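User: Structure please.
Assistant: Input sequence and predicted structure:
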Amino acid sequence: MKRLKLGIIGGGPGSWIGHVHRIASRFDDKYEIVAGVFSRNYKINQSFGTSIGIKKHRCYKNYKAASNLSFSNKVFPSCSKILLKPMKVPTKH
């Protein structure tokens, strides 16, 4: 079975719940984290994203950029759209 592609918004460095969500998404091997916005600071966002295996170009500047790309048929065909998982947690900068 093909894994669902998952993008995470929030849950970056210092976030306990972000760590828990990343672990939980891997338990049954039905999800693959492929994109995200992990911090409002773009440098921290990219650094953190690549440290957990996300390609640099899939670490988006903000949630609007991530959602626009995820649901655009011009960028991703319908079979490869990303499910975005927003997390409302405080972020330390």
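The beta strands are 4-9, 31-37, 83-86.
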